[in-house]
Design brief:
The protein is of the alpha/beta class and 462 residues long. It has helices at 14-24, 49-52, 59-62, 64-72, 91-97, 126-133, 159-169, 182-189, 211-216, 236-244, 246-260, 364-367, 375-391, 407-416, 424-440, 453-461; strands at 3-10, 32-40, 77-80, 100-103, 109-110, 123-125, 151-155, 195-199, 223-227, 268-273, 276-284, 287-298, 304-313, 317-320, 324-325, 343-344, 347-349, 355-361. The chain has two domains: 3-108 and 326-421, 3-Layer(aba) Sandwich (Rossmann fold); 111-324, FAD/NAD(P)-binding domain. It contains 16 helices and 18 strands. Strand 16 and strand 17 (347-349) form a beta hairpin.
């Protein structure tokens, strides 16, 4: 007898939505004749990283939301927001209702940087700052800008590091046509930064940001980009990387253009320093007063080695952008070093080395916080392929049919727990509300984000 395949996807960011979309288009094995999917998200809103991890002055990247909206409008996909996996429900609960569970919870936390002084006042993590300027409901609404912090260090040369450098260097007025909440605009007016120093441990061919991200640094008339010649090295390993990758070549070309360009005398500067490895955050009376780096040199392979030469930089704040780190999910094994759930192509691998029946991962919780948003599509496709293979009774996967596969059984569970869930229809109400706020704002914006969680939930459930 045929029946519906029931799948839960925990996490409604791009990785989870792509997985749901791929599943709805897949050829299902017998006895399944259709699939219905429930996206379960801790935030009251969908889109994850797109809403709360992309800088507000990146409207082109946010265009991805249009494609994700089309996926979520599919009646075979339901959205349940404001549900916290681990608190409101656990793996055992999900397995009562679903044939399989895909975890796509991403990475929300800052990876640690184990150097002396990293916990001083004025030392911040990228994830916290990004969540603040993107209006995430679960972070403090006031950012602790030091009134005398004119020189600021950013540690890390990925796209997030450049986003932070750009937001710190821009004026608040330049961001008024974006979707930043009013409290963020007010906070940025207190930002005294004039010079942002971005530090790379290796050379220009080893940075991780994209050409587009790098070019955008120069789009503001209030910012000069200053690439310092010290450490601007291209060894044989760097040349190999340039020959092998068009993207790397474009990045190095843009950096060389910045290197040759004369400053315009703009009020703010973003400095890019190569072959400088941060070794200590310097402090006085518990506050950041500087950064100490060790000069490095490339070893011929594109890797760097220390020279024992130390340099002290007089900065008053430090932002570390050395990578994100995922949450340890209840009921699943976790690799503390990698910050991921152990898996084989998406199948969750238990501590005894066997596959955990019915449990899968995709996105950053699967492979770590690497790659661009578009890379999650192929990642999700691999995970879905594994899931479908395991549905074959001859696979020996150990997957079991759910006790309560009816769609309304999940609704009854949420109601019984007294959860104030938000739905796709609720998101459409909130979306319309934010767009209306943007239209009526003193400075015309596409939208103005609602920040407090209880207000988002109230509007979505009204």
């Amino acid at each position: 007898m045929s029946r519906q395949l029931r799948v839960a996807v925990v996490g409604a960011g791009p990785a989870g939505i792509y997985a749901a979309d791929i599943l709805t288009k897949a050829d299902l094995p017998s006895p399944f004749d259709a699939v219905t999917i429930d996206l379960i998200e801790r935030d009251p809103t969908p889109f994850g990283l797109i809403r709360y991890g992309v800088a507000p002055d990146h409207p082109r990247i946010k265009e991805i939301v249009k494609a994700l909206k089309r996926v979520l409008s599919n009646p075979d996909i339901r959205f349940f927001g404001n549900v916290h996996y681990g608190d409101d429900l656990k793996l055992d609960d999900l397995q009562r209702f679903y044939d399989a569970v895909i975890f796509a919870t991403g990475a929300r936390n800052d990876r640690d940087l184990d150097i002396e002084g990293i916990d001083l006042k004025g030392s911040f993590g990228a994830a916290d700052f990004v969540a603040w300027y993107d209006g995430h409901p679960d972070v403090d609404r006031d950012w602790a800008f030091e009134p005398d912090a004119k020189q600021v260090a950013v540690l890390g040369v990925g796209n997030v590091g450049l986003d932070i450098a750009r937001i710190l260097a821009k004026t608040s007025d330049e961001l008024l046509d974006t979707e930043i909440p009013d409290n963020v605009a007010d906070g940025l007016r207190r930002n005294a930064t004039t010079d942002v120093h971005v530090f790379a441990r290796r050379g220009p061919a080893q940075v991780k940001f994209t050409p587009m991200e790098l070019r955008e640094l120069n789009h503001s008339p209030n910012i000069d980009v200053v690439v310092h010649p010290e450490g601007f090295e291209l060894d044989e390993g760097s040349m190999d990387a340039i020959r092998a990758s068009k993207s790397v070549k474009l990045v190095v070309d843009v950096l060389q253009n910045y290197l040759a360009k004369e400053p315009t005398g703009a009020a703010h500067r973003i400095h890019i320093h190569f072959c400088q490895n941060p070794v200590e955050v310097l402090g006085d009376d518990g506050r950041v007063v500087g950064l100490r780096t060790e000069v490095t040199e490339l070893d011929g392979t594109g890797n760097a080695r220390g020279t024992s030469e130390l340099v002290d930089w007089p900065v008053q704040a430090v932002y570390r952008a050395v990578g994100y780190y995922s949450d340890n999910l209840a009921g699943l094994p976790f690799d503390l070093a990698g910050g991921v759930v152990p898996n084989d192509g998406g199948r969750v691998i238990d501590i005894d080395g066997s596959a955990l029946p019915g449990a899968y991962v995709t996105g950053w919780i699967k492979r770590g916080p690497v790659g661009l948003i578009g890379h999650t599509k192929s990642d999700a496709a691999q995970t879905v392929e594994m899931l479908l293979e395991d549905l074959d009774p001859s696979s020996g996967s150990g997957n079991k049919a759910p006790e309560q596969p009816e769609r309304d059984a999940v609704d009854a569970y949420f109601e019984g727990r007294g959860l104030e869930i938000t739905t796709w229809e609720g998101w459409e109400r909130l979306d319309a509300h934010e767009l209306e706020l943007g239209e009526s704002h003193d400075h015309a914006r596409e939208r103005v984000k609602v920040v407090p969680r209880d207000e988002m939930v109230r509007i979505a459930r009204s």
